[in-house]
Amino acid sequence: MTGQPPRDPLIGRLLGPTEPELSCERCFEELDRYVELELAGADADAMVPGMRAHFEGCSACAEDHESLLTLVRDA
Predict the structure, then answer these.
(1) pTM of the prediction?
(2) No. of H helices and E strands in the chain?
């Protein structure tokens, strides 16, 4: 914990991520692997750094992630 109060979600979206994030292209390249890691119970965020930050700032990629996660989980 940094000792700073959490930021308002709207302010966070305006300011952008507080950590490195992937580009949409890189997110697309890593999405299958990230979902597989999540479903395997691995620490996907540690193994694909920047992915979670990208989802928080990119609704299109976040939607792709949720769709793929649901598809694979329900298959």
Answers:
(1) 0.74
(2) 5, 0
